[in-house]
Amino acid sequence: ETGVTQTPRHLVMGMTNKKSLKCEQHLGHNAMYWYKQSAKKPLELMFVYSLEERVENNSVPSRFSPECPNSSHLFLHLHTLQPEDSALYLCASSQDMNTEAFFGQGTRLTVV
Amino acid sequence: GENVEQHPSTLSVQEGDSAVIKCTYSDSASNYFPWYKQELGKRPQLIIDIRSNVGEKKDQRIAVTLNKTAKHFSLHITETQPEDSAVYFCAARKLNFNKFYFGSGTKLNVKP
């Protein structure tokens, strides 16, 4: 266990549903990330939070809405998704200064 | 911003042979370069990293080399084993930046 936990592990949702992905880290890190991993594509950074403030938003559609209530928790709220949003969503955390990112197991999302 | 390119996209080697994966980066300010291994259905996990103040780092059968002048770094796996089969990602990060730029990944297949 790397200390980064994501729930749920699998999620199937319709295009009109609203759901949330959860990430929790027990490593005392102060930065958290959401990545999208699609087949045959590099890891795509979606959001970065540092000290609970969003510092990066890589032009992600508004149907994805992040929330970071504290340094240990990160959510990704989903609504009116499209089938092309089906992917593995990975959460990661790191310290500020030149340390590696630790990844969660990911949530396999399927939009039907 | 930073642009990380990774080659090859797929690599097939015979068990016992060596494997080399190469990455280039564009931002000379990048100074931290981790390598991640992602087995099928699992999270990416750090296997080795290198900082810009060293040119080479070795850990048992894996090694990473860095050429700051040419802005490229490579992962070397010797005496490959079937369990080395996975997707490998390189990444680059700048000092004081909470953002990793990932390569597109290399799928390594080690044939027994």
Helix- and strand-based class of chain B?
mainly beta
Major β-sheet annotation of chain B: 6 strands, mixed
Q: What is the first-to-last residue Cα distance of chain A?
A: 31 Å
Output the helix-strand order of chain A: EEEEEEEEEEE
| Oligomeric state of the chains in view | heterodimer
- Shape designation of chain A: globular
How are helices and strands ordered from N to C of chain B? EEEEEEEEEEE
Q: Approximately how much helix is present in the residues of chain A?
A: under 10%
Radius of gyration of chain B: 13 Å
Estimate what percentage of residues of chain A fall within beta strands. over 45%
Structural class of chain A: mainly beta
Verbal overview:
- The complex is a heterodimer of chains A (about 110) and B (about 110).
- With about 110 residues, chain A is mostly beta strands.
- In chain A, about 0% of the residues lie in helices and about 55% in strands.
- Chain A is built from no helices and 11 strands.
- In chain A, the strands form 2 sheets. In chain A, strands 2, 4, 5, 6, 9, 10 and 11 form a 7-stranded mixed beta sheet that branches. In chain A, strands 1-3-8-7 form a 4-stranded antiparallel beta sheet, with no helix packed on it.
- In chain A, strand 7 (about 65-70) and strand 8 form a beta hairpin.
- The radius of gyration of chain A is 13 Å and the shape is globular.
- In chain B, about 0% of the residues lie in helices and about 55% in strands.
- Chain B contains no helices and 11 strands.
- In chain B, the strands form 2 sheets. In chain B, strands 2, 4, 5, 9, 10 and 11 form a 6-stranded mixed beta sheet that branches. Chain B has a 5-stranded antiparallel beta sheet with strand order 1-3-8-7-6, with no helix packed on it.
- Chain B is mainly β and about 110 residues long.
- The model of chain B has no long low-confidence stretch (mean pLDDT about 90).
